[in-house]
Design a protein that fits this description.
By secondary structure, the chain is an alpha+beta fold. The chain has one domain: Pseudouridine synthase. 13% of the residues lie in helices and 30% in strands. It is built from four helices and twelve strands; from the N terminus they run ββαββαββββββααββ. The strands form two sheets. Strands 1, 2, 3, 4, 5, 6, 9, 10, 11 and 12 form a ten-stranded mixed beta sheet that branches. The protein is globular, with a radius of gyration of 18 Å. 35% of the residues are buried. This is Pseudouridine synthase. It is an enzyme of class 5 (isomerase). Its EC number is 5.4.99.-. It comes from Arsukibacterium indicum.
Amino acid sequence: MADSFNYIPPTEPWLDILYQDKDIIVLNKPSGLLTNPGRGPHLADCLLSRVQAEFKLAQLVHRLDLSTSGVVVIALRRKAERELKRQFAERIVKKRYLAVVAGQPAADEGSIDLPLAVDPERAPRQKVCSKTGKTALTHYRVLQQLNNAALVELRPVTGRSHQLRVHMLALGHPILGDAFYAPAVIKAAAPRLLLHAASLQLLHPYSGQPLEFTADTDFVSANCSLNWPTDNF
């Protein structure tokens, strides 16, 4: 989240529900909506509060950044919350993201293994830090070469704050529309952060059945300015 911003969360649809049963609800969070409440009443509207208006016991087990869109699972019962948190902590849950990045990576696929820590002078921003950083691993694959950009698939193994954004920046290919980490010309190249949680694989917290939830994104065809000079970043 930016240091100061005018929070106007999207309202249509109010909740984009992908799946629901007595234990969990899975939603497609839009970019621009907080996953959980921020500080102050002006930041109270969020995905969790909207779900809790209908399900009082609903609890988060993970979250997406304000600007990131995509699949979020929320527990509707306490036992489901505990089990899902265990799956996230033990890295049983598998996550797949899509992003549009500036430039075209030299390798079609690879891994980024760089430890991350909070930047104390620019919190909540993160930075690569070999001394105090926590292990962070991201696998990437180029899906499509665009004009001065690329559509990439990102599969994080760890779940550090801002991991995908910082890792792609470290690779030399910041994500379009990133207000935190991208140079101004890359930030202005898209109307939003072009990062989307496309799928989530987990075990049902009651039955143990493997489940996969997916959510499409249309940002690849959004109004993006892909023709900036490549020597600007």
